[in-house]
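notes to self, project folder thing:

trying the whole complex as one job this time. last attempt i did each chain seperately and stitching them together was a nightmare. two parts in total, labels are on each line so i dont mix them up again. if this works i'll redo the older ones the same way
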Amino acid sequence: MLGSLGRLWQTIRPIRGRLYLGLLSALLASLMALGIPQVLQLVVDRLHVGGTAAVVWTGCAIVLGLGVMEAALIYLRRVFAVSPSTLVEKNIRTAFYAKVLDMPVSFHDAWGSGQLLSRMMGDISTMRRWIAFGIIMAVTDAVTIVVGMALLIRSSALLALVFFLAAVPVSFIAYRFNRQYSRLSRLSQDQNGDLATTVEQSVQGIRVLKAFGRGPTALDGFTEQAEELRRTEVKKATAMARFDMFMFMLPELALGVALFIGLYLTATDQITVGALASYFATATLVTGPVRMLGMMLGQAVNAATALDRHYEVMDEPSTITSPAEPAAVDLAAARGEVRLDGVRFRYQDAPGHVPDVLAGADLVIRPGETMALVGVTGSGKSTLLQLVPRLYDVTAGGIAIDGVDVREMDLADLRTLTAVAFEDATLFSDSVRENVLLGADPSLTAEQSEALLLEALRTADAGFALELPEGVETRIGEEGLSLSGGQRQRLALARAIAARPAVLLLDDPLSALDTRTEEVVTGRLRDVLAGTTTLIVAHRTSTVALADRVALLDAGQIVAVGTHAELMESSSRYRWVIATQEEETRRDQDIETLTGELDLRGVRGEGR
Amino acid sequence: MSAHPTAPPQPDEEQAALSAAENRASRRRSLRLLGELISPLKAQFIAMAVMVVIAQAAVVAGPSIIAWGIDEALPALIDGDPVPTIQAAALAIGAALVGGVLTYGYVRQSVVVGQRMLLTLRRRVFRFTQRQDLEFHERYTSGRIVSRQTSDMEALRELLDSGVNVMVGAALSMVFMIIVIIGNDWVTGAVMLAMLLPCVAITVWFQRRSRVEYRAIRTHSARLIVHFVEAMSGIRAVQAFRKQARNRAAFDELAMDYRDASLRSIQVFGIYQPSLRVLANITVALVLLVGGFRVLSGDLQVGVLTALVIYARRFFQPIDQIANFYNAFQSAVAALEKIADLLAQEPHVAEPEQPTPLPAARGDVDFEQVAFRYSADGPEVLAPLDLHVPAGQTVALVGQTGAGKSTIAKLISRFYDATEGRVTLDGVDLRDISMADLSRNIVMVTQEAYLFSGTVAENIALGKPDATREEVEAAARAIGADAFIEQLPEGYDTDVNKRGGRVSAGQRQLISFARAFLADPRVLILDEATSSLDIPSERMVQKGLTSLLGERTSLIIAHRLSTVMIADRVLVVHDGRVVEDGSPRELIEEGGRFAALYEAWQESL
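result (full assembly):
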C-alpha cells in the first residue's frame, strides 16, 4: 500500500506546496475550533465571580473572531487543496487515455473494455479524493491523536499508559484489517469493471439477445455478477464494521479501566482530582479521531488499490511503438512495394499445441499492383492484413514497404503509407465528412478536400451520403444517424480511399454489397487508385478476376501466387477454394438447386 | 442489403436544457424512485436507526459516567465504599461494549441495505434496457447506458454507504439538543431558532446551485464515458487512421468540462460548508452575549449559562456531517434523475399484462391490415398489409433497400409493434403473447452475428441456455460448423474474445446458425448475410441454411436469387407494399418485376 501511495506522492509533486498550505489551514482551523470552548469557559468563569458587560462583549468578540477565522480556514483548505487536485485528476485521466489509445490491439483484446472504463472513471476519482481530502484528514487526525496522547502523559503517566496499552491491539488489528480490506477492495473494483463489460456487451449485442429472447438469461448473468459485487461490498463493510467496532471499544474500554484506576489513585491521593478531570477531558478529544481511523484507513486502502490498478495499465509496456531512430520515409515518393519475408504470427495467449496462424508466409506485391488474397475462412487473411500497419506485430520474419521494415518506420509514417478498410466497419460519432476524411492529408485546401470527399464517396458507391438529411454534414455513428451494415461498409471503404495511401488494405470491404455493385466499385477502384498497391481479401470469382494477381493463403503460408487463370490451372487447392466461372454457370442454370447470387438491385432502374 | 430504419436523429437528451416544469418533474421522478427503493427495506432502515440511536446514546453516556464517577464514586471510595467506583467502571465498560457492538451493527447494516437497493436498481435498469425496442437502442447509445450503470450508480452508492447513520444520528442529536435548550431557557432557544433562518436560506441557495452543478457533472461524465467506450470499441480504426491525436484533443476537452463541472460543484459546497460554520459560530457567540447580559441583569443563573453554551456547541457539532450528507444527497439525486429519466422512457413494445399462453405453436403467421410508421408523424414505412403464411412455408422477401422487407421481418419478431392492424401467430395477437413464449417460437437471425465474450459453446448455447454439451455439438454438426470449431485452439471451449476478434465473418455466421438451430423455433426469420465467403465456406453455409430452414415457417430477407429460388413463395416488396406474391415459377410466368429480375439474371450468365 505504501509503495503505491508513495508513487502517487511523486505524481502530485507540482501541487505539493498547495497541499501543505491546505494541511496548514486544516490544522489551524482545528486549533481555532479548540480555542472557542476555552474562551466560553473563561467568560463563564468570570461571570461566576461577578463579571462586567465588557467581559461579555470581549468574550463574544473573541468567539466571533475565532469562529470566522475557523470558517475562513476551512474555506482556504478547500481552495488550496481541492482545485489543484481536480486538475491533477484531469491530467492523470488524459494521460491514462493517451496510454490506452496507443496500446496495441492485442492489449485491447486481452482487457475487457469495462476494466479500462472503471479505471478511467472510478479509480481516478478515488485517487483524487484521497489527494484532496484523504491525505489532509489523515494528517490532521494523526496530529490530533499524537498531541492528545502527549497531553495525557502530562495529566498522569500511569493512566496514560492504560490508554497506550489499548493502542497495542489497535496496531495488530489495523494490520489485519489492511490485509483483508486490500484484498476485498481490489476484488470489488475488479468486479465493478467486469460488470461494466457485461453491461456494454448486453447493449452492443442487443439484437442477438432480442432475437433469441435471451433478455432474461442475460439478466440472470448480470444479476449473478452484480450479486457477487454486492457480496464483496458487504464483506468489505463487515471488515470495516469490525474495525470500527474495535476503534470504538478499545479507547472506551481503556477509559473505563482508567476510571477505576484513576478513582483509586485519587482516593489514595496519588493524583489530584484536577489531574483526573483533565485526563478525561483530553482523552475524549482523542477518542473522536480514533473512531475515524477506520474510515481513514479504508480510504487509503481504496486509493492504493485504485493506484495499483491504474499503474497496472500505465506500466504495461507498449509492444508496438515507433523506433527510437525511425528510418526516413519519403511519403510522397513511396512506391508501395510490399514484401513479406517468412512472416510468422501467433497470438500471444494461444495455447502451445496450436500451430502459428501464419507460419512463414512469403509474398511480394509489386508497386501499383492489385493483389487478391484468397484462402478458406479462418486461414489468417485478416490477420495478415493487420500485420502491415502493425496493428499486430509479426512473431518472426518481417514485412517491408519499399524495402524498409515496417518496424523501423515511425508509426505515424507507416500508418500514413497504409490504409485499411476493415471487415466490420467502425465509424465514429461525427459527420460523414469527418469520418471519410479521417485519414486524408490535412494540408489539402477546402476545395481539394471537397473533391476528394466526393470522389471517395463515388468510388465506394456511397452516394447515399449526399442524400442524408444534412448531406455529408449528417452526424453518424453511435451518437448519430444509424446506417445499415452495407452503408457503413461503403463509408469505411470511402475513408480508406480518401486516405490516398501507398498501400491499400481491403479486408473483404465489399461483403455487404451485391455482386454487381461490387464489380462496379472494384472497377472504379482500379481507375481511382491506379498506382496504389492494393491487397484485397476476396472470395468471389468476379473480384478475383479483377485483381492483377492472386495469392493463395493456406495453412499459414502463401502456397501459390499468379493470375487467376494460372492458378486455376496449376493449383487444385485454389480450384477447391474458388469456384470456376463454368462451375458457377453450371450451377446457376439449374435454378432448383443452390445457385449463384444476384441482388434485386439489378432491376432497380426498372422498379422506379 | 438490410433496409435499416433511418429514423431522424434525435436531440441528445444528455445535453438538453430543461424547462422549470421538466426540472421539477425530473426531480419528482428521481425522489419517487428513491422512495420505491427504500420502501421494501423500511424495517431494516428502522433497525439501523435504532442501532444508531443507541450507539449515540453510548457515546453520550461515556462522559456522564465519568462525571458521575468523579462526583459521586470518588467521595464514596474515599469513605471506604468501593461499590460505586466498581459500578462506574462497569458502566463505562458496558457502554463501550454496547456502543462497539452497535457500531459494528449499523456500519455493516447501512452497506447491506444500500447494496440491496443498488442491486435492485441495477437489475431494474438492466431489465429495462433489455426490454427496450431497437429504436430506443439506436438513440440511446451504449456508452450512456454504461454510464447509467456505472458512474451514476456510484454516486448513489456514496450516499447509501454512510447516509443513513449520519442522517439519523446527526438529525436526532440536533433535535434532542434544541429541545433541551428550549426546556432550559426559551430565550436562548428563540435566538437559536432565529439563527436557523439564515441556515435555511443558504441551504436553499446551495440546493439550487448544486442541483445545476451535479446535473452538469452527470452529463459530462456520461459524455466522457460515451467517448471512451466508442474509442475503445473502435481502437483498430483509431490506430490505423492515426486518429489518436484528434481523440486526445476531444477527450481532453471532455475531461476538462468534467473537471470544471466537478470543480464548480466542489466550490459551491466550499461556500456552503464554511457559511454554515460561520453561522454556527455566530450563534454560539450570540448565545453567550444574550446569556451573559441576562446573567449580569440577574435573569439567568451562571450554571444554566454554562449548560446553554455547551449545548449550543453540541447542537452545531454534526452540522458538517449534515452538510456532507446533503452534498452527497444532491449528487445522488442528480444521478437518480438520469436513471429515473431513462426508466421513464415509454417502452414501445410492452409485455402483455395477461398473456395468452402459447407453449407450442404450429407456426401460422398472419398480417391483418398491418401498417407501420416509426413515429406518429413519420412516413408510412409499410402500407396496410394482409398476409397469411401457413405453417412450414418458406417465404422469401425480395425488394430494394428500404422497400420494407426488414420492417415485415421485424414486425413478426416484435422488434417493433404494428402501428395499425395486428400480427398474429396461430391466430393470437403477438401483443398478447408473453415475451418468453414469443421468443421461444419466433427467432430472428440477424446479419450481424454478434459474439459475446466467452467460449464458442457458450455462444451457441445462447440459443438454449439449458442445453447440454451434446446438444450444442449436435447443433454445430447439423449446421456444418463442427469442422472449423474442432480446429480452433480449444475446440468448443475456445474463447472468441472481444468482439469475436479471432473468428472470421463466415465462422461467425455459422455459429449464429447453430445458435438458431439449437433454439429450434417454429418460426424463423433470417436476414440473409451478404458477406461473400470462400466457396467451401459458402457451400457449408448454404448447406447449414437448408438444415436450419427444415420444416419451420421461415421468412428470409433474401439477397441472393439462389436462396429465393428454394423458397416456396416469394413476396416482392416495393415502396412499403407487397406488389407480387406467388411461387418463384408463378411469378416468372406472370411476367412482373420478379420475372424481369429473373431474366436479367439469366442474361448475366
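what i see at first glance: Chain B touches chain A through 194 residues (CB under 8 Å).
need to look closer tmrw
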